[in-house]
Amino acid sequence: MFSITEEQLFTFHFVDREIFCRLVFNFKRDPVESLLVMAVWLWLEELGFRDITLRLMNQPDFVLKAVADEAALFLQCMEQSCPPSPDSFGGMALTTLLVGKEVSYDIIFQNKYTAINGIKSVLNSVCASIFPDIMQKVLGNQCVVSPDHPLVIPGFPHPVFGAVKIWPRETDNSLPDYGMLIELNSVNNVMKDNCQF
Predict the structure, then answer these.
(1) Higher pLDDT, 83 or 25
(2) Contact 137, 175 (CB under 8 A)
(3) What is the CA radius of gyration of the chain?
(4) What is the pTM of this model?
(5) Pick from 120, 152, 171, 175: CA 20 to 30 A from residue 102's CA?
């Protein structure tokens, strides 16, 4: 059986971790909402909307914030019992521009329960594994840490997406600079080829 270390997992997901850090540390966005925003983007990547986080990596702050706002509105849309009206939720124009395919609240709402299950799966299988140290650091005293139990995170269980089990990690109060782990020129070249605003 093949296994990887936590360091290898974090290195593989360095772009996702970097984007998550920008959301919660640089922009001081709500960590629970940011965790769910990341789950939405990673779920969309699983559906074939390729490289969302990679395309966001070198975008200016205002673009990342705007695309995160669209994902946050998407999450609010999932809490509604009726389909969204264009006036109440607007659209996902920047996300559509970013991925080169139409992404809309209405289209996703038509498959609401599939979307909810997919996001729950990504939240528990991916996000819970790649962001535990960041969640611990950003929440500080707000989360209860016990090595025998998952973190108790304010806002979970979520009314739509349920519980998430994030197991505590030993932290050294510093997060590695993931930008140093790869050669940024290769990322920049991908960005120039795939994401022009």
Answers:
(1) 25
(2) yes
(3) 17
(4) 0.83
(5) 120
